[in-house]
Design a protein that fits this description.
Blueprint: H1 2-12, E1 14-18, E2 25-30, H2 37-40, E3 49-55, H3 60-68, E4 79-82, H4 98-115, E5 120-123, H5 129-139, E6 148-150, H6 153-167, E7 178-180, E8 187-189, H7 202-213, H8 215-222, H9 231-248, E9 255-265, E10 267-277, E11 280-284, H10 292-317
Parallel strand pairs: 2-3, 2-4, 4-5, 5-6
Antiparallel strand pairs: 1-3, 7-8, 9-10, 10-11
The protein binds nicotinamide-adenine-dinucleotide.
């Protein structure tokens, strides 16, 4: 199955667009026909993206025809954003789909290792799949920890929105760093490090932390199983791409949180704020000053993170 998918993903259904010639970041989106992939394909319109290549195993001609009607100027792959995967239905956890999504991410990681080993990889979902990409790249001897990112930006955007609503602030002025991972209690919003500074009593802090951690499930339920968070996920995937391409183009001071290989916590991968640069991660800015509530959340998240990471690593070890 692995090699059959590997052939299908990069080759069978593919469509490339030339976009603005202003910068030269060429971006690939495997899973481009999906609920996240379609709105993410609107990256085509960004002046930061000079070429966009869409991959999927289904419906690509339709998406390509649709996108081709958007007016943009007519041309080494730098960034691959992977929203490919099977979404969960109500009542399912991300773990229920582990084998299917692990297989898809492993397949696409092998394709990246073979066809664009220099590219920066941005992937979602995250806690087990970033270790999968890492292990595949190690097997292909092209591993560079500064170039593999798990997108957790959706948790940050949700935290900013909910805090702004609670405190009556402009969301554009609110930035909550979110640490840890990207599922349930591994999502650790450190509201004590929020800019602007906000004062929230502990009971509200606990409640809003739970709201941020369960926001994905709220969307799955509200859509009655038809889809999960596709628009907000595509928005945040695009935001991460823009930040990265800005930094790759030499913009200074670009910081985003992301789930990466990290020495910052008692597990191999952990999300903290990262200074981005021309070659991916420039500097891990670390956990910083942390509240007792933050410490407690990190301690509670570590066992689950370790188990998810191990699951991803074992998957690649047992792969034929
Ligand atoms: P979707 O089913 O609408 O789209 C997935 C697309 O991936 C489909 O078009 C499918 O054909 C494609 N695909 C599958 N295998 C592929 C392969 N080997 N190569 C290329 N394309 C392939 O799903 P969606 O709503 O877009 O969600 C995609 C993934 O993102 C799911 O795994 C979902 O769980 C995850 N997700 C995560 C979050 C989050 O916050 N972590 C939020 C939303 C979705």
């Amino acid at each position: 199955m692995f090699s059959a998918l590997a052939r299908l993903a990069p080759v069978a259904l593919r469509r490339s667009f030339s976009t603005s010639a202003q910068n030269n970041a060429k971006v690939a989106v495997p899973g481009a026909s999906g609920g996240i992939g379609q709105p993410l394909a609107l990256l085509k319109n960004s002046p930061l993206v000079s070429g966009l290549t869409l991959y999927d195993i289904a419906h690509t001609p339709g998406v390509a025809a649709d996108l081709s009607h958007i007016e943009t100027r007519a041309h080494c792959l730098k960034v691959v954003v992977i929203p490919a995967g099977i979404p969960r239905k109500p009542g399912m956890t991300r773990d229920d789909l582990f084998n299917t999504n692990a297989c898809i991410v492993a397949t696409l990681s092998v394709a990246c290792a073979q066809h664009c080993p220099e590219a920066i990889i941005i992937s979602n979902p995250v806690n087990s799949t970033i270790p999968i990409t890492t292990e595949v790249f190690k097997k292909h001897e092209i591993y560079n920890p500064n170039k593999i990112f798990g997108v957790t930006t959706l948790d940050i955007v949700r935290a900013n929105t909910f805090i702004a609503e609670l405190k009556g602030l402009d969301p554009a002025q609110v930035n909550v760093p979110v640490f840890g991972g990207h599922a349930g209690k591994t999502i650790i919003p450190l509201i004590s490090q929020c800019t602007a500074q906000v004062d929230i009593p502990q009971d509200q802090l606990t409640a809003i932390t739970g709201q941020i951690q369960e926001a994905g499930t709220e969307v799955v339920k509200a859509k009655a199983g038809a889809a999960l968070a596709t628009l907000s996920m595509a928005y945040t995937g695009a935001r991460f791409v823009f930040s990265l391409v800005d930094a790759m183009n030499g913009k200074e001071g670009v910081v985003e949180c992301s789930f990466v290989k990290s020495p910052e916590a008692d597990c191999a991968y952990f999300s903290t704020p990262l200074l981005l640069g021309k070659k991916g991660i420039e500097k891990n800015l670390g956990i910083g000053k942390i509240s007792p509530f933050g410490e407690k959340m990190i301690a509670e998240a570590i066992p689950e993170l370790k188990a998810s990471i191990k699951k991803g690593e074992e998957f690649v070890k047992n792969m034929k």
